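Form P-L/3: holo structure prediction, ligand adenosine-5'-diphosphate.
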Amino acid sequence: MKFGGTSVGSPAMIKEVAKLISDEQPKIVVLSAMAGTTNDLILYAGALHKQERVAARKILDRLLNRYLNLVNDLFKTATFRQKGIEMIESHFTYLRGFNRDMFTIHEEKAVLAQGELILTALMQFYLEECKIPSVLISALDFMRIDKDLEPDHYYIRENLNRQLTEHQGTRLFLTQGFICRNVFGEIDNLKRGGSDYTASLIGAALGSEEIQIWTDIDGVHHNDPRFVPNTRRIDHLSFDEAAELAYFGAKILHPTSIHPAREKKIPVRLKNTLHPTSPGTLITSESSGPGIKAVAAKDGITAIRIQSDRMLLAYGFLRKVFEIFETHRTPIDMITTSEVSVSVTVDFKANIEHIVKDLTRFGSVEVSNDRTIICVVGDQISESTGLIERVLNALKTIQIRMISFGSSHNNISLLVKSKDKVEALNLLSEHLFKNT
Ligand code: ADP
Ligand code: ASP
Ligand code: MG
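OUTPUT (holo model):
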């Protein structure tokens, strides 16, 4: 069971979570940081990078105050209040320590980990105070990524199992989402929103019955509720559909969090902490029937078009183009080709300058920033007649720069200007889901 930031964002919510996890079912509970904490820690790290010490101190003082208030309201007894305050003070003393030293990306990762470490310790104290037996295991002792920054499944399984066998008979384990160690043993993380990934990796490593993601909404909706009014919950999705939605921007799930569950065919259930009796969305390997299920949008996309006369009738050209992206360790999301040009999209922009320089060997290169991929998801979407027509009809007034259709059974991707995203999502909702 994974609880996200808003699910542990206040004393009342922490108490609610404690209730939800304290039944007899054996489980591992993965907790994120309290809502807003990771954002604040990123701001703190940013201020340290820029040597803005006053700003850095202000951010930390504000965050410390939130935690001290939380502790006051959470605990009933002076003993546990004291324990909570001491634990929080020790984390903040550690955080303040970075003010004096050199600050690099490595220290930043250690800073970002503090939110999850504090919250799990607080929950453990609260459960202790309520006399609910539980054991806190540190994700830093079993969650690890390899040299390619991918989860080290073998290491995770072996070390997690070792931790669990050390506490035979325990029914309730707590651990931190998001944080891990890298191949050098340093503190690292699974990227923003990574607690979902932690839960899925743990569920897959242990072959658990179900992976539950508890959040502030009653499941996956057919469109992004942050940009579209009156969105509705989807009861059931296949792993493939959910993976596409997560990868293409449905914030409710971390982009790669479905993969470990899909590999091991472990059902994933999305639930609302505020309405625990609502059924939520169930994600399984079963198809949920043909048709369009949902749309999502992924921002921050750059499109690169390579135009070359030499491409005409040349074999091996695409390989050469892809090799350049491989050399610069940049994944490609979408691709379209014509006789004399290739267009690709990427969202990892750190190496774009080098990529463009290398690509100009083949011909002219055009780069367009601030693009968004709109992803329409549903089972057998490319096999059904008329669906692409409905999508394009809905988007008649939007300029579409690229379309990817047919490569996946369950996805149509369209590249639009980011400024058109909200309009595109709303138009799709109006035309595709009005009567469903
Ligand atoms: P948590 O802190 O629990 O991980 P997140 O903020 O990461 O929660 O994810 C939940 C949020 O995802 C929702 O509040 C909602 O605004 C957003 N969201 C975006 N797309 C969707 C979608 N298709 N269905 C449901 N929620 C979505
Ligand atoms: N606390 C982390 C974040 O805000 C991880 C998570 O919430 O899943 O990104
Ligand atoms: Mg999240």
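COMMENT: The chain has a mean pLDDT of 94.
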